[in-house]
Amino acid sequence: KAGVTQTPRYLIKTRGQQVTLSCSPISGHRSVSWYQQTPGQGLQFLFEYFSETQRNKGNFPGRFSGRQFSNSRSEMNVSTLELGDSALYLCASSLGHRDTNTGELFFGEGSRLTVL
Amino acid sequence: GDSVTQMEGPVTLSEEAFLTINCTYTATGYPSLFWYVQYPGEGLQLLLKATKADDKGSNKGFEATYRKETTSFHLEKGSVQVSDSAVYFCALGGSNYKLTFGKGTLLTVNP
Questions:
Q1: CA separation for the pair B29, B94 (Å, rounded)
Q2: Nearest beta carbon to residue B99 from set A105, A108, A110
Q3: Which residues of A, range 93-112, sit inside 8 Å of B by Cβ?
Q4: Among the listed residues B59, B86, B97, B90, the one whose alpha carbon sits nearest the alpha carbon of residue B73
Q5: Which of A75, B6, B58, B72 gives B102 a disulfide partner, CB atoms 3.0 to 4.6 angstroms apart?
Q6: In this predicted model, what pLDDT tens digit does every residue of A33-73 receive, in sequence order?
């Protein structure tokens, strides 16, 4: 069974530009989450989607947005990039059952964004 | 809100040494607890998990016990190998559709 696939793996942008990252979850998984990983802040939760609905959002500015499609694939977008947005962006998928504690997440290898 | 505190390291050990990485948490309700591992250049992989108090998670020689009375989930391994060198993250999962992670502990095992 294929794992979580993230594209692109590496990208370089300049300040003020925007970027779109893509995530294909494991087949059958309906929940997709996004995390930002930096050396200073560690792993920070961005948002989680289930069946095209955002169920939770982390403490990030409105420049960070996401969406999920009917096939469970997800994209996240960062507009007006800042130097501090340089990070590894990790996507994770899970079955996403309701009314239970967040369970095991399956992570992709990440998209490493460098903002110059 | 939920939070996880783990010893940040880095931790450097010789092969076959005993490993402990401490993790404590603050949460409302009864969270699930996890240890994830990140090898260089890769995403996170689940190492082990425990879903209720007194559960012991184990995998690849690693163990951790969910201690509600001390709000802890310490990771242990009796004899580490060079291949265990990685960053280890303690995490908790509540009813809010997200995992809350500790800062991570870099482990280096020397031959």
A1: 8
A2: A105
A3: 96, 99-110
A4: B90
A5: B6
A6: 999 999 989 999 999 999 999 999 999 999 999 999 999 99
